[in-house]
Amino acid sequence: MVDRLNYRIEVTGPVEGRFAEILTPAALDFLAKLDNTFAGRRRELLDARRVRREELQSGEKPLGFLPGTRRIREDRSWQVAPTAPGLEDRRVEITGPTDRKMTVNALNSGAKVWLADFEDATSPTWHNVIDGQINLYDAIRRNIDFTTDAGKRYTIGDDPATIVARPRGWHLVEKHIRIDGRPVSASLVDFGLYFFHNARQLLARGVGPYFYLPKLENHLEARLWNDVFLMAQRELGVPRGTIRATVLIETITAAFEMDEILYELREHAAGLNAGRWDYIFSLIKNFAAHGADFVLPDRAQVTMTVPFMRAYTELLVSTCHQRGAHAIGGMAAFIPSKDPSVNEIAAEKVRADKEREAGDGFDGSWVAHPGLVPICREVFDGVLGGWPNQLGKLREDVHVTAEDLLDVASAGGEVTEAGVRANINVALRYVDAWLRGTGAAAIHNLMEDAATAEIARCQVWQWIRNGTKLEDGTALTRELAVEFLDDELASVRAELGSENRLGDAYEIFTETALGEKLPSFLTTGAYARYLTDAR
């Protein structure tokens, strides 16, 4: 506990090993200044989120492009800041948590950028949060290695990927750091500790402090981030505009404010990213009560080629390039298998997905495993040639309406028993892994993260609420879903053995997928009881 003139900073998590190197008095003071300055605005914006969600769910105020910001959208004269060093070429980006093994492997993967993820790919235990900061601190100073159980040692090579850190979203708090008894914003903890310890070191190496911003729902939340950046740079004497931020457009409301989000961040903006699974989750969450027109088919059938997803991605590319910002494509989540036939089929799907993105004008795309870097790089090499990006491809042919973005019915497809069971199976496996401290889990040859659990359980909730019929004509009821859930629990438990948290995962899934309401995992009693050492 540290007492200052106007506030008390308290670290309630254990300060073990090298944690004190990160949790220094000066770093905690920096966090306190940020949080004290912006805590009120953050709470107001979260309240506004709730109100807007209720309006959308009730149909009181339809979703559309904002009349009050039309000038920003129609003014073609403004651009974002020039591309920062290390971000000119982003043709392949690899994502993953900030554990030591992933840090070394990601930086050596051959990708141009590593998304160092404190968010969906990290189970936010106190250890994971602070240990991740230590790993990035060491990596930036080229003082990191990793030794396998077999004794093989890995170090960072001569041409590592550019680090872009992703803090947790505005809706989360870090309860292990408190100011006057209240928990600090998790966003500011992840951003602040990384920026405080590494900004000057990164500049000395010819790059800068770069960030991915998740879960934004509107341009006012982007404005808050921009003000945080301005204050952080001012407090540490870092030149204004040094920070660069890429925003994930992974909520349906943010899709209607792409121009406005870039405008608010324009002196710090680097680009936008098409965050697929969270985007679909957001759409269901906001329109789940609107009947069959908003019911989506099996998750596997909601590809990036369905019309409403095409509209979203094409609008993203067009918006970015009109403003001089990079457009980054979605995740290739496949994990290489020991079965060559599985790998061959998956590689064809990954290649087709990346060819579509590169052809649409994206400047790069995400992969979840080093084994996919060569495929993604080859595809973008073929389109880019000697150019580092496609910023010159303005996509002036793109004209997307509000109706296009909300045309969920155009997805077609069907809901199958196999699809329902797959959602339940994957959700149980993922939440089990997450409760045991793993935020990026390899499940059925895919790298799944927190967005997986969200879309899996909210789809089941929506199907039950609408009495959606399966392919054989049977309506999905809560009772049938419980039957499937019990079956899948028994199957997964038989495979995983006794060392698991499946009972807890079962309770969380029941509470968040089978009840009358559709709560966030973060508000459930099961979450509070079982994740006592995390968020």
Model description:
- This protein has 535 residues and is of the alpha/beta class.
- 47% of the residues lie in helices and 13% in strands.
- It has helices spanning 19-22, 25-58, 70-74, 100-107, 126-140, 186-204, 219-236, 252-255, 258-264, 276-287, 307-322, 340-360, 373-384, 402-405, 417-435, 450-465, 478-496, 502-513, 525-530, and strands spanning 2-3, 8-11, 92-97, 113-117, 145-147, 153-155, 162-166, 173-179, 182-185, 210-213, 244-249, 269-274, 326-332, 364-367, 441-443, 446-448.
- The protein has an eight-stranded parallel β-sheet with strand order 7-4-3-14-13-12-11-10. Strands 1-2-8-9 form a four-stranded antiparallel β-sheet.
- Helix 2 (25-58) crosses helix 6 and helix 12 (340-360) packs parallel to helix 13 (373-384).
- The radius of gyration is 22 Å and the shape is globular.
- The two termini are 20 Å apart.
Helices and strands in order, then pairings?
Blueprint: E1 2-3, E2 8-11, H1 19-22, H2 25-58, H3 70-74, E3 92-97, H4 100-107, E4 113-117, H5 126-140, E5 145-147, E6 153-155, E7 162-166, E8 173-179, E9 182-185, H6 186-204, E10 210-213, H7 219-236, E11 244-249, H8 252-255, H9 258-264, E12 269-274, H10 276-287, H11 307-322, E13 326-332, H12 340-360, E14 364-367, H13 373-384, H14 402-405, H15 417-435, E15 441-443, E16 446-448, H16 450-465, H17 478-496, H18 502-513, H19 525-530
Parallel strand pairs: 3-4, 3-14, 4-7, 10-11, 11-12, 12-13, 13-14
Antiparallel strand pairs: 1-2, 2-8, 5-6, 8-9, 15-16
